[in-house]
């Protein structure tokens, strides 16, 4: 494995950061409250793409040997549970940037950048390709830009040899683009990159003893942006469909269906 | 006049039809629309672009001609063009390319960005987009010097608004960049992209075997549809994950969505609920999908789909 090591600065520990987000479970019912709020008393989990990112970070760390995997999150106090998930999966320690607000992607990226820069020199940063709650699709790009690193997103295959990262990014209709970048770089994990491990009870116990640094976002010193994204209202997505069940023998039903989809679908 | 840039995407040398919805969304009485063409085909696209109300076609090129696909270089070229022409607002598609270019542009301009918009109000700088995989509709306000909007494909119906467009070549100096695109690997059978498809036929757990997807494929070929799959079908190994529709899969918005043997979980529904017409074929009359579709067929998909393929063939005269 030694010639495969990406770590060029021998004698140093390779630093792998992985950014994670604490999000409502995909099966949770989201109930909208007044204005821009929703009922947060639902089950929260690690963002599924971030779970894939943690798995990849831990595997790279295991393969490289002298390495440290640091999980970073920004969120409410409860986000520590998502850090604990990352730690149970094998991350070495965590950083929690705590806030009671819901910061936009611009502030989030800046805060993550400041926390990582203050902590150490990253060699690779892993993130999920997007979050399944706000679906902003941009934080990883903003973080990479702030750190001056190249970034590839929706990565479904990852390899690293001698300081060179090669990834395959899923693009459209099953096509993949093969991208090469030098380290340090940022990699956004897509579905299919790996199958995250199941966490066992001893891993959970071990994770409790791992160190988590806490930073308070409001008192954290970094340059505030001049632009912003503000959620001014949330509405439940209403469903207005009325199902019309087609009756008859299969031939009849299909005949009705073909007529209806040609009339209503207006595509052919 | 408010200047608005529109990133034009092509596929195999043709403008993607979803771009016309983006141009329609960007239009306004006092808006001057600048189409950014990076594939060297500005002159060739001019007629189609002016048909939809584009005022200026900016043919963006580098020393050695057109700018080959590379998200980093494309975003540098777009950013340079916006600065050169004093354009503070950019529109594009939330397609595979748009997802890889618009956030890079937004990051380098420190611009607020909303991807997957289903509605944009340029004057108020507010947009509507779904969050929590379609469970919630959010209204978001952008503030700052710039704005970048990524429109969900097919979310805005294209409407022609003919005008006379002016061609403007624009040269951008580009170095090599930090990332290199080594190759684009096409899948063995190049299908239609799910996120931009106008018609999708999807299979669920009831497909039972990977081979059975060929039945959907046959039907799809007749009507020019893309083939999708539910998470249950993907997790059971019947379909590759890039075919997955739903939360942790693709969000789609076709004009017609045909769900075959899909029960209709919250997660699946989250990915296809903004479709125009939804048809469900399922043997179980109590399947949740029947509460969320327009037309339901309570029958065996193995009986219905081949019949549907045959009748569609007849109806379309081929």
Descriptive report:
Chain A has 268 residues and is an alpha/beta fold. Chain A is built from 6 helices and 13 strands. In chain A, the strands form 2 sheets. In chain A, strands 9-8-7-10-6-1-4-5-11 form a 9-stranded mixed sheet, with helices on both faces. Chain A has a two-stranded antiparallel sheet with strand order 2-3. In chain A, β7 and β8 (164-170) form a beta hairpin. The longest helix of chain A has 17 residues, at 48-64. The mean pLDDT of chain A is 92. Chain B has 318 residues and is α/β, with parallel strands linked by helices. Chain B folds into 2 domains: 2-171, HUPs (Rossmann fold, 3-Layer(aba) Sandwich), CATH 3.40.50.620; 194-315, TPP-binding domain (Rossmann fold). In chain B, the strands form 3 sheets. A 9-stranded mixed sheet of chain B has the order 9-8-7-10-6-1-4-5-11, sandwiched between helices. A 5-stranded parallel sheet of chain B has the order 14-13-15-16-17. In chain B, β2 (10-11) and β3 (14-15) form a beta hairpin. In chain B, α3 packs across α4 (96-109) and α5 (213-223) packs parallel to α8. The mean pLDDT of chain B is 94. Chains A and B meet through α3, α4, β7, β8 and β9 of A and α4, β7, β8, β9 and β12 of B.
Elements of chain B, N to C (H/E)? EEEHEHEHEHEEEEEEEHEHEHEEH
The main sheet of chain B orders its strands as: 9-8-7-10-6-1-4-5-11
* Beta strand count of chain A: 13
CATH superfamily of chain A: HUPs
Please name the CATH architecture of chain A: 3-Layer(aba) Sandwich
**What gyration radius of chain B follows from the Cα positions, in whole Å?**
21 Å
Structure class of chain B? alpha/beta
Query: What would you call the quaternary organization?
Result: heterodimer
Number of DSSP helical runs of chain A: 6
**Helix percentage of chain A:** 25-40%
* CATH architecture designation of the largest domain in chain B: 3-Layer(aba) Sandwich
Q: Using the alpha-carbon principal axes, give the shape of chain A.
A: globular
> For the residues shown, what is the average pLDDT of chain A?
92
Total number of strands of chain B: 17
């Amino acid at each position: 494995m030694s010639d495969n090591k990406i770590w060029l600065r021998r004698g140093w520990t390779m630093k792998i950061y992985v950014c994670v987000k604490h999000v409502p479970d995909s099966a949770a019912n989201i109930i909208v409250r007044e204005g821009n709020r929703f009922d947060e008393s639902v089950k929260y989990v690690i963002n599924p793409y971030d779970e894939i990112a943690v798995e990849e970070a831990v595997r790279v760390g295991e393969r490289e040997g002298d390495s440290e995997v640091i999980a970073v999150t920004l969120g409410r106090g409860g986000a520590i549970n998502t850090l604990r998930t990352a730690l149970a999966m094998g991350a070495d320690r965590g950083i929690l940037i705590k806030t009671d607000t819901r910061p936009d992607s611009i502030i989030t990226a800046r805060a993550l950048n400041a926390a990582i820069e203050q902590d150490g020199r990253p060699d690779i940063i892993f993130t999920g390709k997007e979050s399944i709650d706000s679906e902003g699709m941009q934080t990883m790009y903003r973080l990479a830009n702030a750190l001056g690193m190249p970034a590839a997103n929706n990565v479904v295959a990852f390899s690293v040899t001698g300081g060179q990262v090669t990834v395959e990014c899923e693009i459209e209709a099953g096509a993949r683009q093969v991208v090469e970048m030098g380290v340090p770089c940022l990699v956004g994990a897509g579905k299919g990159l790996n199958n995250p491990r199941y966490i066992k009870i001893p891993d959970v116990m071990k994770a409790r003893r791992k160190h988590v640094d806490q930073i308070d976002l409001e008192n954290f010193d970094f340059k505030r942006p001049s632009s912003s994204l503000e959620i001014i209202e949330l509405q439940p997505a209403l469903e207005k469909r009325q199902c019309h069940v087609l009756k008859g023998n299969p031939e009849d039903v299909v005949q009705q269906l073909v007529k209806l989809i040609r009339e209503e679908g207006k595509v052919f | 006049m408010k200047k608005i840039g529109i990133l034009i995407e092509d596929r195999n040398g043709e403008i993607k039809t979803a771009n016309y919805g983006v141009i329609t969304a960007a239009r306004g009485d006092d808006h001057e629309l600048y189409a950014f063409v990076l594939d060297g085909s500005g002159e060739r696209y001019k007629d189609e672009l002016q048909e939809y109300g584009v005022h200026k076609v900016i043919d963006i090129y580098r020393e050695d001609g057109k700018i080959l696909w590379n998200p980093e270089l494309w975003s540098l070229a777009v950013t340079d063009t916006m600065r050169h022409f004093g354009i503070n607002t950019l529109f594009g598609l939330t397609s595979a390319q748009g997802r890889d270019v618009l956030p890079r542009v937004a990051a380098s301009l420190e611009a607020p960005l909303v991807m997957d918009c289903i509605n944009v109000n340029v004057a108020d700088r507010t947009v509507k987009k779904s969050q929590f995989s379609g469970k919630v509709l959010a209204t978001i306000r952008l503030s700052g010097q710039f704005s970048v909007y990524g429109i969900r494909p097919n979310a805005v119906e294209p409407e022609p608004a003919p005008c006379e467009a002016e061609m403007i070549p624009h040269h951008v100096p580009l170095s090599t960049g930090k990332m290199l695109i080594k190759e684009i690997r096409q899948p063995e059978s190049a299908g239609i992209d799910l996120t931009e498809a106008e018609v999708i036929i999807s299979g669920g757990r009831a497909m039972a075997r990977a081979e059975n997807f060929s039945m959907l494929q046959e039907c799809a070929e007749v009507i020019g549809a893309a083939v999708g799959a539910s998470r249950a079908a993907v997790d059971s190994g019947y379909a590759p994950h890039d075919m997955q529709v739903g939360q942790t899969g693709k969000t789609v918005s076709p004009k017609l969505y045909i769900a075959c043997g899909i029960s209709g979980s919250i997660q699946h529904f989250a990915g296809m609920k903004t479709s125009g017409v939804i048809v469900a074929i399922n043997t179980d009359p109590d399947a949740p999908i029947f509460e969320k579709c327009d037309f339901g067929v309570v029958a065996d998909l193995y009986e219905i789909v081949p019949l549907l393929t045959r009748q569609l063939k007849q109806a379309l005269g081929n």
